[in-house]
Amino acid sequence: MKDKYYYSDGSTLDHHDPEKTFHRTDGPAVELASGYKYWYLQGRYHRTDGPAYESAHGSKEWYLHGQKHRTDGPAIELADGDKYWYLHDHLHRTDGPAIEYASGNKEWYLHDEKIKCDSQEMFERLCKLKVFW
Q1: What does the alpha-carbon distance between residue 133 and residue 123 come to, in Å, rounded to a whole number?
Q2: CA distances from 105 to 98, 99, 108, 121, 123 (A)
Q3: What residue segments make up the domains of the chain, in order of their start?
Q4: Nearest of 58, 52, 90 to residue 77 by alpha carbon
């Protein structure tokens, strides 16, 4: 398979043209022979039914309108097992840590602000007390 690049003017090329805007509604706008796939809508990462970026090694990233965003799981899943939860391009998660490292380490974030805690129970207690507002 050759590299394929789909553009907003309807053209499909086997090379990147920096003068054109990536765009495709029925599949990835960039498909590389190496296995990487990128979904774009009007030049921005965008996909509503799955990740907008898929690496050949298994990493996946979800985007809406150019922002890292996913409501039903981590917006970034790296091949090494690290996971990152984003809403509207902000690290954010209320039902668990917003970052889970494959090593087992965890970090809690609310609206892109890191909350210093070491458990979900502590995070919920701090939220109830509104300590960081």
Answers
A1: 13
A2: 11, 8, 11, 16, 15
A3: 1-68, 69-133
A4: 58
Give pTM, 2 decimals. Answer: 0.93
The first and second tokens of residue 116, run together, are 């210093």
Can you tell me the mean pLDDT for 53-79?
Answer: 98
- Of all residues in the chain, what percent carry a pLDDT higher than 70? 98
84-113: average pLDDT: 97
Question: What are 54's strand-pairing partners?
Answer: 37, 60
Is the pLDDT assigned to residue 132 strictly greater than 60? Answer: no
Residue 131, pLDDT score: 61
Q: What number of CA atoms fall less than 13 Å from residue 15's CA on the CB side?
A: 2
Q: Which residue in the block uniquely carries the two structure tokens 């050949």?
A: 56
